[in-house]
């Protein structure tokens, strides 16, 4: 179930968020994109989970992949459609009930909004949705516990070791991790990790 306060922030900020993040040339995450697509077959199927304004889904599409874009925010889905021509299914993490369909899942700073108690179940759900050997890119913020940012959005924080352990328990093999620092919608600089793994 999506957090109402978090969803309200994204509903109000959809256009500004899209302009700030979707239209900027995002070279910072090029290594993460390259690591992810390196494990995909040509023309493979990709799930963009929590696609937000749709810029990554559009890139996958333009690079020749077959993309399914999902986001819990109707406002973000509308922005993605209007701006990038991306059709977005409005759904929550719990709604992903698919077996062996995707060659890759791009969960790029979306699952960080899930409560810690729900996170292992989401990882298992995504594992089932991947074909054997399918690729996962997981972007999360580093830290401890749960809390809200200055905008009121709910976050769950993990250490890199916690994430790799949870992925291993869910049946993934971690291929690489990359740490970095960046500013999000709230404007604060935070440390993140992007984990690339396969099922």
Structure description:
By secondary structure, the protein is an alpha/beta fold. The protein has one domain (4-198): Rossmann fold. It has 6 helices and 9 strands. The strands form 2 sheets. It has a 7-stranded mixed sheet. Strands 6-7 form a two-stranded antiparallel sheet. Helix 5 (119-129) links the parallel strand 4 (102-108) and strand 5 (130-141). It is globular, with a radius of gyration of 15 Å.
Give a brief rundown of this model.
The chain has 199 residues and is α/β, with parallel strands linked by helices. It has a single domain, classed as Vaccinia Virus protein VP39 (Rossmann fold), CATH 3.40.50.
Fold blueprint:
Layout: H1 4-22, H2 30-37, E1 45-49, H3 55-62, E2 66-71, H4 74-84, E3 88-90, E4 102-108, H5 119-129, E5 130-141, E6 146-148, E7 154-156, H6 160-169, E8 173-183, E9 189-198
Parallel strand pairs: 1-2, 1-4, 2-3, 4-5
Antiparallel strand pairs: 5-9, 6-7, 8-9
Keywords: Methyltransferase, S-adenosyl-L-methionine, Transferase
EC number: 2.1.-.-
Enzyme class: transferase
